[in-house]
Amino acid sequence: MHITRRSTLVAAVASILALFATGCGRTEESAAPAGQPAQPIKTFAMNVLVSGVPFFNDTQDTWRAMGAGLNVKTIYGGPLDTDAQKQIQQIEAMIAQRVDGLVIAPTDSAALAPVINRAVDAGIPVVTYLNDVPQSKRLVSITAEREEGGLRVGRSVVGQSAGPAKGIIMFSQVGNEEQEGRRRGFEMLAREVKTLQIVATVSDKFDETVGATQLRPLLAKYPDVNYIFGCGSRSAVGAVSALKELHYKPGQVTVTGWDYDEDVLDLISQGWVKVTAAQNTPYMTQLAFNVLKARVGGWLYPINRLFEENAVRPVPEKIVVPIDLVTAANSKGYYPRKAKAAH
Prior knowledge:
2 domains; 39% helix
């Protein structure tokens, strides 16, 4: 994920407009048949770890489309950077507005546990998204493959019979559950492929400029590096930037990415990036929305069982959605609909 001055301004304006468009969590009433009382429209809020970045576009679009299609008010927001305290403040505001359900992609799992518990204690069901908060009272965690995803991406480019090779891992933030998990996946790959040595790890803080700056001296130290494994949405872009500055050629170093920002797709078509992981975020958003809809609607728990009275979970504690691999063979399908899909 990449944060720029322009995206920060756009995200700030968009957040304000979204609050007005959704009535700031105000309860309204839906039309009802003649002679029957009107039913209040429910309000669901989603708060992500950093808003206004390309990675969350599909999530935001799906969230709003489902609200419009299912007659639910939706609020979408999140801090403009990975600031846990700002996210906590925004969630506190949603609790005060008495929204009917919350989906949270947390910046810091430990820091957000208390506010999630306050939401649940206030009668608001919470679903965690991407990053989990297992020590909280959240209803379910919906996420994508992490360790297994890193292994799948790595295995797609590193053969078991490969000769001695060196690799560098680029991940975004220490303490971020999903980033740490993906990094562990690539470390597991190195233990699996005995000839692969991970010589360095870079934290790029979701910023390709930071990533490139940290990677350049490592490329000077290890000019014969074979692989750069990216764990964040901006990792591959930072890696290629550094490689270009040091006059490497496309394909000279095998670069893998995560997620499918448009410039990452461009780099795949240009031969700089070999593969990137696609998290099925629209599907995960649908799952999260529907869990809330079922919980609020009263059909999440089986009506003929004593689940709720005996603390039996109505859904799995964690739902892990597999990733897909994006390569030159299928990358055109991942471009935004209005963008040019061939380069």
